[in-house]
Every structure is written in structure tokens, then in C-alpha cells.
Amino acid sequence: DCELNRWVKLTRSKQRKSNEKDPCSAGSEYSTVIRSSKPRSMNQTATSYNGIPKIIHLASPTSCLPSQRVKALKQLLDSGSPFNDYTIYVHSNYAMDRFIMAREWSVFPEVKEGALCTAEKVKQYVTFALENLGMDHAAAVNSTNTKMAEDAAIQGARDIWKYLILWEYGGIVLDVDTLSHFLPWDEGGESNNQYLDRILQLYSKDNQDAILFWINVDKTAGRDKKDKSRLPFTQIMGLVPQHPHMFFVLKWAIKWGSDDIPLARSPKAGKITRGDLPRNNAFYFKGRNTDIPPVNEGLRDFLPNSESLPIDALVPHTGRDGSTMLFLNGDEILPPALTSSSPSWKMIFSALRVDNEKEEESVRNKLISAQQLASEQNRVLFSCMKHRLKIFSKKNDVRR
User: Fold this and answer.
1) Is the pLDDT of residue 272 over 50?
2) What is the pLDDT of residues 37-56, one digit of tens each?
């Protein structure tokens, strides 16, 4: 608890660096740690390791949350077991960046480069698309291209942070946009607590190592039939600290975030094979390169036959560490609004101020087309190696 407090609670000087207001504006309050006013269950602590820790990592642009949101979260935690056993840590963008950059990561020495390059790569591709493909959707007129590109870039860096915070502390991670589908943010808002109640009940079971929800599930697919349509739902993830799946996920996410290798195709009729995903791009047809692809690749390393395993199965790791993972049908457990379209794209659409399905399709196509256009023009929009050299050179200039 104390160590997590360190990363989310900012001193006055750090608050000024983060550009967060304190006191917050009217109708908001500064929140970093939210706990129940009721005592925990006997022998239960937030970091109890006889199952997934009772921690919720809530990603938010700022620690200034609307007061009604804080009230709804406190009411949730005070509503009885298992909710009162949970502690919510609010991670602002500044806190997330500090968590990655302010410490050394012996297991993932390249994670800082991965986070920096992932964010800058997304920013460069979004900027190119905005400037070259006429992405003039209605909501964008009130915001600058630079601001929208920076907001989109945060989503890439947040992918790296999400996997890293789960590796280090375990628990459950989600963001305020995802949580808004469960809790009423406004007075009189409709509550979807029945969904959240069921999810936390699942995460609260003892001796549970990890849960992965799947969406777009083909109900006709069984153990002997691969379900090629299903996708791992990455907007809510929960597992124990140092789970082997998260080790593989982080390694893949860092690789794709910082890789400068262009798309390679196998000799078989141009078929794209494992390892051939265009890692030097920022997006592919299902969303960000650092979102779903690393989770899928990590699963193949954790469970080589993961694609053919049935939903609702508790599957053991092929190694000898005794870890497991529970596959569940997110289409049946999660709110329909969360699973009706690609959550990975939803976050980018939000950053680009897109708010209707027609514009979503147009923006998605243009972001994908921007990468193809740059390739056809033999333009290298981003190089991680050059970006790291640029950062290093700036630091040296400051020291001089």
C-alpha cells in the first residue's frame, strides 16, 4: 500500500510539474486513493496474495475527478463484501509517466524506450493522417491537431504502463472511460452495478491467478475448432503480480512499440505470419499495435494452444510455476456497450474527438491509409532509434 501511495500521491512541486490544479476546479476533487469507510474482511489486505490483489488501478488523465464520480466510487466500496476489501488508486497521466521513468526496471531494461517510442510513434502517425488525409470530422474543429495527436499518443504509453503496473503489483486495471459504463457519473444516472458486482465477485475468488475476458466469441467454436473471431478484452485486466503471461505481454509490447522493422511477408502467397505484424506502424485493423497483439502473442508463449482452448476454461501454464488463467466470455459478462465495437479504437476515437459511428469508420480507415500512404511514398514517419538519439542529445545540451 505504501509503495503504491508513493506513485499516485504527488507533492506540491510535482503537482505543479504535472499541471494539475490543486485545489481542483468547482465540481471536482483531488483524489489519489479511495478506500471503503468500512473495515476489511478478516485477514484481508489490499495486497493479499492468496488470489488477485484487491487493488483497482484507475487510469485517469488527471487526479482531479468529478465529485460525483468520487461519491459513486465511495458508495460502491461501502456497499459490502467484496467491494469494501478493495482500494482504488487513481493514476494520472503524470503519475503513470513517473512510474515508468523514475525507477530502474531490471527485468524490463528497455521499457522506458518502449514507452517513449510507443507514444511518439502514435503521435507521428496521427499527425500525418490529420495533415494529409483531411481528417476534418466535426468535433475536431475545436481542437488543434497537435493536441489531438498528443492525446492519442497517451493511449500508446498507457498500454505499456498498464502491463507494467500489473506485473509489479497485480490487481485490476481499467480507465475512467471504461468505468463509466458501470457507474453513474451524474445525479440520477443509470447504474450498471450488476455488471461490476459480477466482475469483482469473479476477481475476488481465492487462488485465482488471472482472468482474461474474450469478446466476439463464436459460440459454435469448441475445443477442436479454433475461434478466429474472438479477441482478448484488454480494457479490463486482472491478475496476480509477476504472472508469466504479463512478462511475455510486456516483452512483446515493448518490441512493437520500439521496433523500426517494416512489414515482412512470408513467401506463401504474401501471407502474414506470426512475427510479421507491421511493428513499425502504430495501428492495424483491430486498433493499436501495442494493445491486442502483445496480449495475443503473450498468450501463445504462455499457452501455445491458446487459440483452440474453450471459453470458461481454467488453463494451466505450460511451465512449472503452477500459474493458471481463467478464460471467460466477455460478451455475456461485460456491458454490451463495451463489447459492441473495438475498445482499442474507441480510445483513439475519444482522443480525436470522434463521437459517432459514421465518423469512426472514416477516421479508422484514414489512420490505416496514412501508414500505407507513407509506405508508398517511401517516407519513414518515425524511427525509435533516431527519437532516442534526439532525446539523448537534448539532455546533453541541457547539461552543458
Assistant:
1) no
2) 887 765 455 444 578 999 99
**119 vs 59: CA distance, rounded Å:** 16
Q: In 212-311, which ranges are continuous DSSP H helix? A: 244-258, 292-302
Asked whether the beta carbons of 106 and 347 are under 8 A apart, the reply is no
Local confidence band at 83 (pLDDT 50, 70, 90 cut-offs): confident
Determine how β-strand 55-59 pairs with β-strand 87-91.
parallel
Residue with the three cell numbers 480525436:
352
d(CA 389, CA 111): 16
Contact 161, 112 (CB under 8 A): no
Find cell 518490441 and name the residue: 255
State how far the Cα of 306 lies from the Cα of 228, in Å rounded to an integer. Answer: 11
How many angstroms separate the CA atoms of 262 and 197, rounded?
Answer: 44
> Could you read off the pLDDT of 358-384 as tens digits, one per residue?
788 888 888 888 777 777 776 777 888
Burial grade of 341 (CB within 10 A; 0-12, 13-18, 19 or more):
middle
Please give the pLDDT value at position 87.
94
Q: Which of 164, 172, 184, 157 minimizes the C-alpha distance to 82? A: 172
Q: Which residue has the higher pLDDT, 192 or 299?
A: 299
Contact by Cβ (8 Å): 164, 321: no
Q: At what angle do helices 292-302 and 244-258 cross, to 10 degrees?
A: 140
- Contact partners, residue 108, CB within 8 Å, separation at least 6: 114, 164, 167, 250, 251, 254
CA–CA gap between residue 369 and residue 377 (Å, rounded) = 12
Mean pLDDT for all residues in the chain: 79
